[in-house]
Amino acid sequence: MDNEKRSTMLPGDSGEVPEDRRIWIGAREIAAPARDRALEEREELVRLRELALDARREAEDARAEREHLLGQLREANEKLVMAIVEAQQLADEANAARAAAVQNEERFRSLVYTSSAIVWQASADGRAQVDPEAWRRFTGVDPGQDEQGWLEAVHPDDRDRVREAWTEAVAAARPYTCQHRIQSRGGGYAWVVARAVPIPETGTVREWIGMMTDVSDRVRVELAREQFIGILGHDLRNPLTAIQMAVEVLGALPDPYAPVVATAARSAHRIEAMIRDLLDFARGRLAGGIPISPRPCDLQVMCDAVVEEIQQAHPGRAIRFEGAGDLRGEWDPDRVEQVVSNLVGNAVTHGIGPVRVTGRGDGDEVVMTVHNQGPAIPAAAIPILFEPFTRPVEEADGATSPGLGLGLYIASEIVHAHGAAIFVASQEGEGTTFTIRWPRRVPSQPRPTTWR
User: Are strands 431-439 and 365-373 parallel, antiparallel or unpaired?
Assistant: First the structure.
């Protein structure tokens, strides 16, 4: 107790607190609440400052969000304007296309009306529909009531063929083409070419669109030309036979007449070859193909004979035949020799250097080739190489080719009649090669001649 009193008293004190100390203690007690209030106000100020900062940040975020929304709105407006412009352009283009389609349809209808043609359509399963007015204008009769009533106007001899061709095209979903006769408004029958193509939709046929075109004038010209050629060939044979008999009688004359007689004999031989080609052409065109008489024969023997004959006629050219394997089959030997002669003669005429003929047994087929060096056949000439009266290739020396341009056509027709296939390959620097694949026996349904 004494110690506590001593600790609160200053030196020299008598135990009472000095006046100034009491004043200091009182002031301190008075200032304590003010200090507490100041601290509270300071804390409140700090809190208000934090709230102000938060509000400021929220305001900045709101301003940024508003700018972002305004940017999106501007972009959306620009896209909307562009979409409106594009939509207008598309609408203008659609209107222009619609107008053009209407004009094209009017032109097409006018063209069909003035070109003696009938446009027709058919369902996916082949039920054909024709425009009654166009049909009456073309045929002079009304179309039948049923889906194939139009066949009643087709020539009776062509009706089954037309029905079969159309049925096969529909079943295979492939383009349809058929030339036949149909009743004509002027009486009788007109030749027409009917064509149709399938219109696909998601992998299936939606419908068929076809056209029937009058080709009577062209057919009449072709028939008249071919009949004239056939008659001409027959009529030339009698005077030619007389010339050949006279040449044989004069063959024993001495010089200086012997060369003249030999020239006449060669000329008569060339005329005979031309007449034979004309007659074969007429048979191929008018009789449905060149007739053949197959019998057992050997390609080795036939090629040897032809090569030897042409070698004698062209002693300055090297012509050889090479055979390998079994070359026997059932063919028309006269016609096969004619094919070999035409191809080898073509090689001698249009090529240079040696001519190489080969034969090779290949299972059920015998493959024959005729190769010669010289200028390549132009690519544009390949598709028409086997057409009649065509000379797409000039001779190596630029001279005029002898003959009528029927040799390759007749060769291809004979090949076709045997059910064989003929190909040609020609490249610069490698020469030209004709290849024929002869089946050892003629099939019941010969395949068409092909080339590449």
Answer: antiparallel
Cβ(319)–Cβ(344) under 8 Å?
yes
Backbone torsions φ then ψ of 75, nearest 5 degrees: -60, -40
Task: State how far Cα 247 lies from the chain centre.
Answer: 55
Q: Where are the alpha helices (DSSP H) in 294-393?
A: 299-313, 333-350
Residue range 366-425, pLDDT digits in tens = 999 999 998 888 888 888 888 876 665 554 444 445 556 778 888 898 999 899 999 999
User: Strand 295-298 and strand 319-324: pairing?
Assistant: unpaired
Separation of alpha carbons 133 and 131, rounded Å: 6
Q: Which is nearest to 180 in space by CA: 212, 139, 224, 133?
A: 212
Report pTM: 0.48
The region, left, alpha or beta by phi > 0 then psi within -120 to 50, assigned to residue 390 is beta
Helix (H, G, I), strand (E, B) or coil at 35: helix
Question: Could you tell me the strand order of the sheet in which 319-324 lies?
Answer: 319-324, 352-362, 365-373, 431-439, 421-427
| 271/277 Cα distance (integer angstroms) | 10
- Give domain 295-439's CATH number out of 3.90.1170.40, 3.40.50.300, 3.30.565.10, 3.40.309.10: 3.30.565.10
